Amino acid sequence: MLDACYAGFSIDPDKLLLMASSLLLAIITLLVLKKSKLSTKSKIGLIYGHLIFLFFPFVVLTTNATMCSFTCACTNSLLNLVSLALPTTLLISTVAGFLVIPGFYMFFSRKYEVENFHVVGFVEKHSTRMKIRMPKVYVIDNANPVAFSFRSFKSMIFLSAGLIDLLNKKEIEAVILHELGHLKRKASVLKLSFSLLKFFSPLSLLARFHHDSDEEEAYADKVAIRIQKTYRYLKSAKRKIDEFERIKFTLK
Ligand SMILES: [Zn+2]
């Protein structure tokens, strides 16, 4: 189409509909995220979904315009357009998710930074020894005993109030060392550029909440065992958490 080429790009009703439905889905995912009480895993899935639906129309628009002006052939095939726009959208959402998801924890979840002298000193001492950037430790408002860590623009360790309630001092230290082990591992992963995409993927963050790979878990455990010179505390921490989960399951 000659006039379309001259105009820069052409938008037909199909493309508009595609973009409008994507934006609508972005709004829906955001509303679901705001309204409902969801597990962390589902929340992260929704954030990722939201980003994909949000970016998709803009990528479609850009792809369409680029194809029109550079190849001078506006594609009328939606399939062609989508097959170009979708991988780009996934890439952009992935990078954005890498920034947004930790940010979500930083700003939107109820948490407070641990300023306890003992904990901060403990984290500082061991992160220095392990040659990693000192993470901030946060307590999140969750009755379940959970712990996880992030390393993006900032290093962060999250411990739930339930975990702190359940475990004693040495066991909490074992959990912190285990999380430092994860952060150390991530730091070395970052150095290997081929692992970059895996590292950047919010989906890998999603996986982090439930099961890390066995290898990664074993590595983090080994760090805690080596520093504490015993498996005792980590073992009893795991036993208590398992017991908690079992009782919760029985009560349901
Ligand atoms: Zn772990």
Q: CATH topology of the largest domain, which one?
A: Zincin-like
Question: CATH superfamily of the largest domain, called what?
Answer: Metalloproteases ("zincins"), catalytic domain
Whole-number tally of structural domains: 2
Helix vs. strand class: alpha+beta
What shape does the CA trace take? elongated
Gap between N and C termini, in Å?
63 Å
Beta-strand proportion? 5-15%
Q: Strand order, biggest sheet?
A: 1-2-4-3
Considering the chains and any ligands shown, give keywords for the structure.
alpha+beta; 4 strands; 11 helices; 8% strand; binds zinc ion; four-stranded mixed beta sheet; 252 residues; Zincin-like; disordered N terminus
Can you describe this structure?
- By secondary structure, this protein is α+β, with helices and mostly antiparallel strands.
- The chain has 2 domains: 2-107, no CATH class; 111-251, Metalloproteases ("zincins"), catalytic domain (Zincin-like, 2-Layer Sandwich).
- It contains 11 helices and 4 strands.
- It has helices at residues 2-7, 13-35, 40-71, 78-107, 117-129, 161-166, 169-191, 196-200, 202-210, 214-228, 232-251; strands at residues 111-113, 136-140, 147-151, 155-160.
- Strands 1-2-4-3 form a 4-stranded mixed β-sheet, with helices on both faces.
- It is elongated.
- It starts with a helix and ends with a helix.
- Bound molecules: zinc ion.
- Zinc ion (ZN) binds next to helix 7 and helix 10.
SSE blueprint and pairings:
Layout: H1 2-7, H2 13-35, H3 40-71, H4 78-107, E1 111-113, H5 117-129, E2 136-140, E3 147-151, E4 155-160, H6 161-166, H7 169-191, H8 196-200, H9 202-210, H10 214-228, H11 232-251
Helix pairs in contact: 2-3, 3-4, 3-9, 5-7, 7-10, 7-11
The structure holds zinc ion (ZN).
Zinc ion binds next to helix 7 and helix 10.
